[in-house]
């Protein structure tokens, strides 16, 4: 297959791109290298990918001309769409960035895919956050997703509805993947496991949110290698789109899957694991959960992905964090410069 990976300089995009390349697929990346978090980390991931022969075009998914050109030069059989404004709490600071990338950008990309001949099959990242205030756990794909707790979640839910229309009208093959709190080496500095590590090592205090009403605050933390296997499984089982040049010719595939780990861990346990692995006691502030878009608890039912994608997560939080901590220590203690070369 020949895959356009959007968000290729991002955390998940880097891992998926290099896995595709390793097994012999054609991969071209696209990323706008925005500064939502330290762009030097994105550049270091880019350098890593370039060493394995994956090149990233610098540009925005809202740039229609650029996308059209790319599709003219390369016949993409698949698009792995990971570019987005991620992060739950930042949506309260910069709401328009979510509309720009997660809604306008998605529509732009689908417009170009719809017009392409042949149309590619599209696999894209939705989010566990679409389950919002739903308290029925574990979350299964049939559960309600109409009560988002954050604008981020609302834009991912909107993406799922937009996917429905492009499938219905234009015959695009679309698979949405609801990732559950992904972590691992080359991860995202805005995520709790990452900045907890940084702050614990610096002796800075960390805030642990506790819910007064819902009991434990926990996440179904999912290791990056498991997510990559799920993404590859989705690409491999994606059927062809059925349209050409914007016209639908027959029924096309429309799917959505949970990609989680099925074992929620309280955030306080995540901190205890980090303390043991870093051999440093954290300075902790336990605070009652603020109204910041967070949901108290996530837990994936993955039987559909197991059945249809062969998805089977194998890394527990302890093992995965060990790999993250090893990477973190090497990257930030001199390895950073070497990695960027
Ligand atoms: N990491 C998680 O825990 C998690 C969980 C659920 C869903 N997701 C989703 O998975 C996808 C990948 O997440 P990630 O953790 O790798 O995030 P990330 O921020 O590391 O990667 C996203 C990449 O997309 C790029 N980008 C953003 N807007 C763009 C635009 N308009 N045009 C071109 N490039 C743009 C960014 O520069 C970044 O490199 C996102 O869609 C995210 O919403 C992530
Ligand atoms: O699964 C998902 O769909 C989402 O997973 C993560 O979102 P989140 O689970 O909120 O991840 P973090 O921001 O790393 O938070 C993890 C946990 O730590 C808690 N937390 C966060 C920050 C903090 O200072 N203290 C604290 O206790 C949060 O309440 C949450 O329970 C990603 O950041 C989102 O992009 C993604 O869409």
TrEMBL record:
CDD domains xrefs: UDP_GE_SDE_e
One Pfam family per UniProt: Epimerase
SUPFAM superfamilies assigned to the protein according to its UniProt record, in alphabetical order: NAD(P)-binding Rossmann-fold domains
Domain called NAD-dependent epimerase/dehydratase: residue spans: 3-240
Keywords: Isomerase, NAD
Domain of life: Eukaryota
Family: Belongs to the NAD(P)-dependent epimerase/dehydratase family.
Descriptive protein name: NAD-dependent epimerase/dehydratase domain-containing protein
Lineage, top ranks: Eukaryota, Viridiplantae, Streptophyta, Embryophyta, Tracheophyta
């Amino acid at each position: 297959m020949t895959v356009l990976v959007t968000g290729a300089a991002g955390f998940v995009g880097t891992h998926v791109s290099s896995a595709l390349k390793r097994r012999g697929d054609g991969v071209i990346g696209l990323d706008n290298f925005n500064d939502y978090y330290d762009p030097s980390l994105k550049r270091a991931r880019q350098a890593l990918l370039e060493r394995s022969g994956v090149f990233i075009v610098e540009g925005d998914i809202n740039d229609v001309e650029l996308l059209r050109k790319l599709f003219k030069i390369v016949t993409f059989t698949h698009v792995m769409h990971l570019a987005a404004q991620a992060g739950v709490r930042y949506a309260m600071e910069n709401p328009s960035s979510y509309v720009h990338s997660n809604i306008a950008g998605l529509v732009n990309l689908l417009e170009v895919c719809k017009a392409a001949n042949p149309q590619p099959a599209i696999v894209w990242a939705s989010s566990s956050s679409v389950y919002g205030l739903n308290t029925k756990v574990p979350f299964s794909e049939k559960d309600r997703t109409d009560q988002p707790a954050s604008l981020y979640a609302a834009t991912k839910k909107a993406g799922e509805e937009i996917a429905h229309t492009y499938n219905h009208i234009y015959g695009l093959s679309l698979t949405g993947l609801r990732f559950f709190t992904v972590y691992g080496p080359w991860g995202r500095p805005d995520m709790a496991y990452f900045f907890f590590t940084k702050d614990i090592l610096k002796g800075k205090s960390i805030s642990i949110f506790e819910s007064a009403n819902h009991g434990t605050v926990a996440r179904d933390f999912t290791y990056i290698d498991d997510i990559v296997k799920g993404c590859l499984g989705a690409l491999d089982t994606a059927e062809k789109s059925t349209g050409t040049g914007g016209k639908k010719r027959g029924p096309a595939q429309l799917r959505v899957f949970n990609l989680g780990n099925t074992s929620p861990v309280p955030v306080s346990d995540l901190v205890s694991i980090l303390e043991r692995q870093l051999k440093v006691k954290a300075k902790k502030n336990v605070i009652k959960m603020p109204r910041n878009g967070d949901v108290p608890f996530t837990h994936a039912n993955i039987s559909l992905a197991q059945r249809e994608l062969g998805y089977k997560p194998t890394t527990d939080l302890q093992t995965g964090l060990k790999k993250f901590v090893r990477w973190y220590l090497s990257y930030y203690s001199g390895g950073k410069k070497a990695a960027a070369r």
